[in-house]
Amino acid sequence: MTSDKLNGRQLFEKIGKPSKIVAPMVDQSELAWRILSRKYGATLAYTPMFHAKLFATSEKYRKDMWCELDGDEKIDRPLVVQFCANDPEYLLQAAKLVQNKCDAVDLNIGCPQGIARKGKYGAFLMEDWDLISRLISTLHEHLDVPVTAKIRVFPEREKTLEYAKMILKSGAQFLTVHGRLREQKGQQTGLADWEIIKYLRDNLPQDTVFFANGNILYPEDISRCMNKIHCDGVMSAEGNLYNPGIFNTEHTNEKDKIFPRVDKLLREYFEIVKSCEGSHASKIAMKSHFFKILRPFLPLNTDIRSNIATMKATTSFNDWEEKVVKLVEERVQAIFNEPNIYEKDVITVGETQLWGGAYRTVPYWRCQPYFRPVNGVTADKRLTDALKAATETTTVESDTGSEPGSLKRKSEDEIPHARGKETKV
């Protein structure tokens, strides 16, 4: 480690104490999306997860994933570049190729997908603490910029705490904790456990730069998370993908800021992609982002959905504009030309839920959270039902001075987070 390398708290201060963070997402947190997210309030962004060995050895892979504008001081900072790896030397080679274009390099030890199992990286390194330590310490000792890490949790709090301590001792300068188990993915995603994240925050050194990840639906959930966990920042993945306005915490009374119209956001994003000359990753990701931005709008505009489905990375920008962007603009504008639009364009706030927040009812022409259905039931209903069932648990008090058979309603802090029953929110 060079004597002038910043430690975690120094780096955090240097990059402006970021509290609203775009998560690393495979093929989704690419350059254009990071630029858009920053315009809507994000204060730090991570790249997609890059495969360290391929990045180090394959020029084609590197050109597909990275271009001159990535990490540009004017449009793409502060930035953390994330790699998955299981070989310290390949990880170091890859990291050295980007260390002059980023503020830190992150090791992904949280990816739970099958490809990570097959390649032995991400969350499938969680049993190999020696290898994780060598991966982190190699970067810590030989890289010009700090190394950080993003983890998932074990079922046992104490084991997770020892795991986190090992990662910090190895040299990680930021620690991001995704409060889900490795098994919580797909239909088993479930609710992230803020209690275990808080436990880690309370029991790790207080000068640790600590980010929380999970359960962010609306801008106010960011402050709610920070107040509960006392973390330095909050990371969002899926919430940000469906609505970049989730980071606009300073504009919670401005619906165009926090629930932007799909036509306005689509146009803004499309123009950013066109401006990212040389970013193959941005063009590749555009189709997926279009589907997510327009998710509430497409069921009532199936012809536009069909048009997007036919698009490819090689499709001209002109075709994208004529067959999708302009059509969306025309149809949303027609809605706003209706005489009763101000009565219809209203966002309503529901009652506070057991998980601490409240659901919104948002018009379909605005970006909003997505509750992925599983077996015909959406995540918001499963989540609420599971927590409601937990609060109705009957506890027989004994040896406490209370009468036998008395009922005790659990407080929110006592409610165990149900795992494997809901979809990620």
Overview of this structure, please?
The chain has 425 residues and is of the alpha/beta class. The chain has two domains: 8-255, TIM Barrel; 262-336. 41% of the residues lie in helices and 12% in strands. The chain is built from 18 helices and ten strands. The strands form two sheets. Strands 1-2-3-4-5-6-7-8 form an eight-stranded parallel β-barrel, surrounded by seven helices. Helix 5 (88-96) packs parallel to helix 7 and helix 13 packs antiparallel against helix 14. The longest helix has 20 residues, at 317-336.
Oligomer: single chain
- Estimate what percentage of residues fall within beta strands: 5-15%
CATH superfamily of the largest domain: Aldolase class I
Q: Helix tally?
A: 18
Instruction: Give me the strand/helix succession.
Output: HEHEHHEHEHHEHEHEHEHHHHHHHEEH
Determine the fraction of residues in helical runs and give it as a percent range. Answer: 40-55%
Structural class: alpha/beta
Shape: globular
